[in-house]
Design brief:
81 residues; alpha+beta; Glutaredoxin; globular; Thioredoxin-like_sf
Length: 81
Amino acid sequence: MMICLQKPIVDELVEKFKHQATIARVNIEHEKELKAEYGITSIPTLILFKDGYSVEKFVGLQTEDSLFQKIKLYTSIGDTC
C-alpha cells in the first residue's frame, strides 16, 4: 500500500520543517467533507497550503526530495496577502 510507503517520508519532513511549517495528516475515510472539498480520489494525496490557500497537490507516492524542495520553496516565500 503506497500510503505505508509515504508515511515515513512525511514523518521525516515533519522533523525537518518543525519550526517552519505545519504538517498534518487527515484520514479521508473519517473526513468525507474534506475529501470532497479537495477532490481527493486516491491515496496518498498531499496538499500544500500557503497562507490558508491550496497551492500544490500531489497524488501518489512522492519522493522525500521532491516534497522537501516544494515545502522549502513555499516556506521561503513571504506572505502572499
